[in-house]
Structures are given as C-alpha cells and as structure tokens.
Amino acid sequence: MPDSLHSVYVKWIHYCHQLIKNFSNTTSNDSLSFRDFESQWKCVNFKLIFCEHSIEELSALVSELFNVGKNFLFSQQPLASRVGGLYLLYVLYFGQLTRNKICLTLNELKELIAFLDELNKRNMSEQQFLFYKLFLKKAFDFSSTPNQFVSQKHQSEEDADIIGNLLDSCKCGLLQSHGLSIDELDNLEKKLNKYQEIKSQIPGFCDSKSQSAATNDLFVSEFQ
C-alpha cells in the first residue's frame, strides 16, 4: 500500500473514532438520537471524505471505515458507542459514491440480530428504522467466513440456508415490531420502486446518486 494511501486511512479512521467518542460523550443516554450524531459529524467536517478523494481511493477507504463501524457495533462498549457504529455505517453507505456493500459474516449477522433485539426491548425505534432502511436497500453482503466475501459462489448450501433463515427471522421480527406483514412490505417496496421510476422521468428531480454526492450543510439531514 502506498504511504500516501496509508496516511489517508489513518486520518479517517482517527476521525471515525473521534466522531463516535464525541457522540457517546454528548448524546442523551435515553434517546441516542441520530440528530446528535449528525451534529458531531458536522463538527469534524466528515462530509469532506466524499470530495477529497478519487473514486478509486474512496472504494478502498469506505470499506476500511465500514470495518471501524462494525468494530464499534459488535464491541462490548456502552450502548451509545455501539449505536454510533450503526450510525457510521448508515451515513457512509448512503453518502458514498461507490456503493460498496457492508460485509457481514455469519457470526456478525447473529450478533447484529441480538443487537436489534436489544434495541426492540428498549423501544429504540429510530435505530431500528435506520437498520431496516439499510436492509431494504440491500446494503449487506453475507458469508459464513470473511474469505468468502471475495467469492461467495463457494459458500455451502448449509451456510446459505442458515444465513437465509436468520435474515428471514430478522425481517419478520422487524416487521412485527411495527405491526406489519411480509406482504405489506412487498407491496410497499413495489410502490417505492414505481415512485423512484416515475420521479426519475420528471425534469428537475435528482436521482439517489446525485443526492448522495451533495456537500451542502444539509448533507447528513438528507439521509433521514
């Protein structure tokens, strides 16, 4: 890895840690609001990550920062830091230009589902909604081991079944917590896709990619 690229990684990884630390120290333990995370995001000018680097650099960098978010999310740290990890994954995924996927192993998926159960028990609907949006937008790649992210065609049928069952369980749990059914979700997704199709044909409307490239002061607010 070139020294210049390594220094870029170190810089933004440090910013990620500082961002989540600041969020954890300033947010209310009752709400852990995304608004609080947004405020800290602006304080460190994190949006500059999307305009300081080339597409080639961003692809590798975003993958590294996804790992930072996952490390916080799956850590034994206080809930605020774990929620901060989820928020980091959310803003990076919807802010990037490269559309990298967030890679999860089977064990990480199990941990994530346990985390969502904890959020549900605490009635933390905002955080559940943000994950649900990631899930609906197919932000995740799943595999039984990290090595299989490169070539998932070698994934065994047994592993695929386990992952599929866990995802179905997670999906049903999320829907039930909001009083919805699978059929209602499918209908909603069809309507959303139709809306996006119609919107793209109307002059003056930006598509999702151009929105994600925005760099004004409302940058993070557009995610909500």
UniProtKB/TrEMBL annotation:
It comes from the Eukaryota. One of its GO terms (molecular function) is sequence-specific DNA binding. GO terms for biological process: snRNA transcription by RNA polymerase II; snRNA transcription by RNA polymerase III. GO terms for cellular component: snRNA-activating protein complex. InterPro entries: SNAPC1 (IPR019188). PANTHER family: SMALL NUCLEAR RNA ACTIVATING COMPLEX, POLYPEPTIDE 1, SNRNA-ACTIVATING PROTEIN COMPLEX SUBUNIT 1. This is snRNA-activating protein complex subunit 1. It comes from Daphnia sinensis.
